[in-house]
Amino acid sequence: MIAARSLRASALRNVIAKRSISTTPAALSDKLFVHRDTSDNNGNVKFEFTSENMERAKEIMAKYPPQYKKGAIMPLLDLGQRQLGYTSLPVMNAVAKMVEVPPMRVYEVATFYTMYNRDPVGKYFLQLCTTTPCQLCGSTEILKTIEKDLGIKVGETTKDGKFTLVEVECAGACVNAPVLAVNDDYYEDLTPATTVKVLESLKQGKPIKAGPQTGRHTCEPKGGLTTLKGEPTGPGFMVRADL
């Protein structure tokens, strides 16, 4: 009995000894979490809102009680990014001073949300959605088309500084997939041909109308309406007259 147990224990040890340990490779990118000083992005560079944006900043801060001024961090960062083009260290420091919090509190916000660009981006910031719905509708081909037309890869900016291309997760417009966000505008229902058309219009500084590029209105069915074609019924429809 004891010998049998010893054999089973020995066999179990051999199995355990042969098991391989699987680990996930460390992420080498420091883009979102580590700051590196540059000549125009360091603690000695000063940032100030323009007079117009300062008025807007005051309007934003007025929405929060004095003891909760830190609630304005996100909209103020967005305002600073729109003025400068990206969320630099000076922008973050200026916001921290305005809301009276340690700068680290602002750094934490800016590094958590991907909406804040830590590095300069082009005049036209291209964000292509490549999540499942868009991928199934052809976003892979759209990505190849953009890279070929602009001569850049994901994460790069064209030499003239006009275009920066990144991939994003969900753009929230799955019914209009594939979707490309250009700054604040969405270009939807894209094909390789319409993608080139959008890019060419941007190169010329004359952006075409945003939205679906197939002619359909917003997110109506591609094949046209199948229900709710007539006038809506009024009050009392199909209700007994004696009620």
Task: Please characterize this protein's 3D structure.
With 243 residues, the protein is an alpha/beta fold. Among the domains are: 62 residues, Arc Repressor Mutant, subunit A, CATH 1.10.10; 89 residues, Glutaredoxin (3-Layer(aba) Sandwich), CATH 3.40.30.10. Helices cover 37% and strands 9% of the residues. The protein has a five-stranded mixed beta sheet with strand order 2-1-3-4-5, with helices on one face. Helix 4 crosses helix 5 and helix 7 runs parallel beside helix 8. The chain starts with a helix and ends in a 31-residue tail after the last strand. The model has no long low-confidence stretch (mean pLDDT 87).
Instruction: Give the CATH architecture of the domain at 124-212.
Output: 3-Layer(aba) Sandwich
Strand content: 5-15%
Structural class of the helices, strands and pairings?
alpha/beta
CATH class of the domain at 124-212: Alpha Beta
Characterize the biggest β-sheet. Answer: 5 strands, mixed
Question: Under CATH, the topology of the domain at 124-212 is which?
Answer: Glutaredoxin
Keywords:
243 residues, Arc Repressor Mutant, subunit A, Glutaredoxin, five-stranded mixed beta sheet, 5 strands
Summarize the structure.
This protein has 243 residues and is an alpha/beta fold. The chain has helices at residues 2-18, 51-61, 73-84, 89-99, 103-112, 132-136, 139-150, 192-203; strands at residues 124-129, 163-168, 180-182, 185-188, 211-212.
Map the helices and strands.
Layout: H1 2-18, H2 51-61, H3 73-84, H4 89-99, H5 103-112, E1 124-129, H6 132-136, H7 139-150, E2 163-168, E3 180-182, E4 185-188, H8 192-203, E5 211-212
Parallel strand pairs: 1-2, 4-5
Antiparallel strand pairs: 1-3, 3-4
Organism: Actinomortierella ambigua
Keywords: 2Fe-2S, Iron, Iron-sulfur, Metal-binding, NAD, Translocase
Binding site for [2Fe-2S] cluster: 129, 134, 170, 174
